[in-house]
Amino acid sequence: MLAHLTSAVVLLGATLAATTAATVEPLSFAISATSQNVQFAAPPDANNATQIIAFLHAASTTGVAVNGTRQVSGTFAVTGSYCKPTTARVRGILQVLVHGATYDKTLWSGLGQGARYDYRGYANAAGYHTLALDRLGHGSSPQHPDPVAVNQAQLQLEILHRVLAAVRSNRSNRSNALGRSFAKIVYVGHSLGSFLGAAIARTYPADADALVLTGYSTAFTTAAIAAQTYAPGALFSPSRFGSALPLGYVVTAVEAERSRNGGAFYGGAFDTDVARADFARQDTAGAGEFASLPGLLLGGAGGGTAADAYAGAVFVATGQLDAAFCVPTAGRTCADILQATGESFPRARAYKYYAPADTGHVLSLHYSAPATFRAVHEFLDGVL
């Protein structure tokens, strides 16, 4: 009986996502932002791939030494794609979708692998507007700033804050590439995108009415990430990334590691063809994005990690086999970890978690994806 019910949920989710194809509107925001980036005590030589990979490995194991902060300012092009609802039951709510490391905005449409994996399509069919963004330096972003000193998590936080502020403001705001505003905004993140979402709730609590944090918890472990083999994108595939791409933008270099059942990305029940497509279509990760995470995590008032002032609703969706965010320890299950994650949002008006079985880190590319999409939108429908 349970198996039949699960199959029905999956079929319903896939059918809903596929009802009507959304019209995709590409756009670009011109965002001026300033951040206090961390200053690494011993940054790698920008032209030395060996040093860069060693720096990244240290960042994911022992950590890298920091020597204060430095101010970074600029005007940045933030590319994205906007889609309107594909149903007559339209909600005046915008979901802003922010991808994780080694992905771009196409993660949210399932990397072209079909309706089962199309979160954006599901949201549009459920009546939500969506804005899928490329983080700075990724996807169709025309800018690739220094991946160690400049393109750090702190700068991306400030850029996202200004994008959210722009789409909340009136349509005449020159920074608002949408040309319209939304009174209600849902921030949806995956992995690094979820870290940024939690930081927004902590630093700018009025930016989003609800948070959906996927591939996330406050019990982050790096062993599976450190076990990956990395290479500069410019050297790994110059035909795809361009030989001029700074070497600090790296990719996972071994398909078997990325698609391995039980590894950093996948676990449990998934289509190996989708995992192979994921490897072939992967984007880069910036060495500084990952190395600067400790500064982002401790960026709250008094150095705390809790979003004490955030009063919106929070939904966390993380697979039970997520090797980075839901690793059971003695006496502590994945459910315990996700329940405890809610403590970092002490004033949230609603908190709920969802932990799909047989599902690894990139949960939107597993067989359980439609059930996850449904759980997300049942929560949002109930709180917004």
Automatic annotation (TrEMBL):
Gene3D superfamilies linked: alpha/beta hydrolase (3.40.50.1820)
UniProt KW keywords: Signal
All residue ranges annotated as the AB hydrolase-1 domain in the record: 96-374
Short name of any one Pfam family annotated for the protein: Abhydrolase_6
InterPro entries, A to Z: AB_hydrolase_1, AB_hydrolase_fold
Segments forming a coiled coil: none
Signal peptide: 1-21
Name the UniProt record assigns to this protein: AB hydrolase-1 domain-containing protein
Higher taxonomy: Eukaryota, Fungi, Dikarya, Ascomycota, Pezizomycotina
